[in-house]
Write a structure and sequence with these properties.
about 325 residues, Lipocalin, about 5% helix, Jelly Rolls
Length: about 325
Amino acid sequence: MNHPQVTKRQPLPGFIKTFMFFLLAVFTILQVSAQQKKDPDVIGRWDLTFVKDGKNFPSWLEVQKSGFHTLIGRYVYANGSARPISEVKKDNGKFSFSIPPQWEEGNRNLDFQFEVSGDQIKGSFVYVDNKTYNFTGVRAPILIRDAEPVWGEPITLFNGKNVDGWHTDGKSQWVVEDGVLRSPHSGANLISDQKFSDFKLHIEFRYPLGSNSGVYLRGRYEVQVIDTKSGDPEPINNQFSAIYGFLAPNQMTAKDPGEWQTYDITLVGRMVTIVANGKTVICNQIIPGITGGAIDSNEGEPGPILIQGDHGSIDYRNIIITPAK
């Protein structure tokens, strides 16, 4: 009886074994390298709240990568515009950065240190008064809508007779004269009683020479109302029709002081379009975060329309909002 011939398995030549071990080593090194290069959890945008003198104040932080290793960012304090952070340092699992004062009355930097756990952040900072204040925060919501909005019925927010439907954050200086909502001098901000998520807003305004105001969308994102023509020079993203400190208009459409002007603003999630005096100056752009002077940092929630009244004399009229259903 014949048996089938069994072929013995020949051992691999030495150079093939060496090459396979080399490939395995390279693969292992690449895996470790990829793990080391994994983006740290701190990267992203953060909605912050800090406690100062027993009161809560909103602020905002963004951290980005620059190259392979360096972290940079931007920070918005309770007032003022977004400030660049040249480097966010990491040491033993904690992060820190320092920024110079902007509108604060003092010479020392604001020094921050904090740690991140998942979608939570907590830390402290030393203010220009040399006191330490604590803050907490959460990862900012993306606010991307899945579908185009369906618009409801327009709502007249200002009735032309009185300030019914509005309240202030201090002693009110607002008056109504001849169908015009007027702040004759610096004072309190005016806030709508109603809150809104996505909407279209039409608003008309008039400022005197050198004056300054703003319209806050959801109470958190300021559209600048400012005498750009004759006022003090400002960075372009702080001027007329800008989202203060973030988004600059693509052209300057401001009229002279004393003339009535218009904004038509559409806000859907974070996406904003601004038509200033009939010309589209910001088209469907992302608002990164809250601006200085925001009522809070709860970006995922509906909010009011806030009209700034603490920067000078200003007039408003014909305030009409069309909310999304």
